[in-house]
Design a protein that fits this description.
Blueprint (H helix, E strand, L loop, with lengths): L3 H22 L2 E9 L7 E6 L12 H9 L4 E5 L10 H14 L2 E4 L2 H6 L2 H10 L2 E3 L3 E6 L2 E5 L11 H8 L5 E5 L6 H7 L3 E4 L8 E2 L3 E2 L1 E2 L3 E2 L6 E5 L2 E5 L17 E9 L2
């Protein structure tokens, strides 16, 4: 006869296993709408991906790609840490970018893990070959006054004064979309006049609690301010992704992997 305490322990272990599996592998989609008189094309869909950290959702990320494709994006933006310095399966990241770029134009900026990993120049060359537009402190116009600006992560040290760079790049006549890995720099983004910022890095606070939010984020510490959703300062909206993968701390709790969908609409 099975001991009741042993049975309870086994049941608890199985339930914990499936809870962790659900929290770390079941993707959720968060949808936001941003309106501006400077947006000329209504219902312009942007899928935001961040902090993949070499994670796979299905073989070669087929499940992730399928979810993205279903959202019918006009563009995909990736805000860094697509690789992980602790597990260097770079092929996983490159394959994801290749498949994403087959859906629609894909724009990428680096995170701190790309810098820690080393060989950033080679990685950007491979990402470009895989179909991404790599924005190393550069900008591109994509559609009727929509301008995408990308700044490299401070860890890589390719630019000394990102604030000066942004002031030169941001034009009031454009709808300026900034891709930058670190959300804690919102004040700098707002000061430059960016209309919309996409960021990641915080992993949603890793563990999220009701009425409290995320518990810890890199560079923000305990009870971080910027972890998930839309934040506004001056005329700048910043969308922070909770990300998809994990790094140093290997698990998420009440913080499922996230794809973000932002729809741009004309406010007039």
């Amino acid at each position: 006869m099975i001991n009741k305490n042993v049975l309870k322990t086994v049941i608890l272990a199985v339930m914990t296993y499936f809870f962790i599996l659900f929290e770390n592998k079941c993707i959720t989609v968060s949808k936001y709408c941003i309106e501006s008189s400077k947006i000329k094309n209504n219902n312009f869909n942007i899928v935001h991906i961040s902090d993949l950290h070499n994670t796979e959702f299905g073989h070669k990320n087929k499940r992730l790609i399928k979810r993205i494709k279903k959202l019918e994006p006009n563009i995909i933006v990736i805000t860094g840490d697509i690789v992980d310095c602790h597990k260097t399966n770079v092929y996983c990241a490159l394959n994801f970018v290749k498949e994403a770029s087959n859906i629609c134009p894909t724009y990428y900026v680096c995170g701190n893990h790309e810098g820690v990993l080393g060989g950033y120049k080679k990685l950007t060359e491979d990402l470009t070959k895989s179909g991404a537009v790599v924005l190393n402190n550069t900008s591109v116009y994509i559609d009727n006054g929509l301008k995408i600006i990308g700044i490299t992560d401070p860890y890589i040290k390719l630019i000394e004064r990102p604030d000066e760079f942004l002031k030169c790049e941001v034009k009031s006549s454009d709808f300026n979309i900034l891709l930058s890995h670190r959300p804690q720099l919102l004040s700098m983004y707002a000061e430059s006049g960016c209309d919309l910022v996409f960021s990641g890095h915080a992993h949603g606070g890793q563990i999220r609690l009701p009425f409290i939010g995320g518990l810890f984020a890199p560079d923000q510490g305990i009870l971080p301010k910027y972890t998930s959703g839309v934040y506004k300062e001056k005329n700048t909206n910043m969308v922070v992704s909770r990300g998809l993968g994990n790094s140093v701390f290997p698990f998420r709790f009440f913080n499922r992997p996230e794809i973000v969908l932002v729809t741009l609409k004309n406010s007039r």
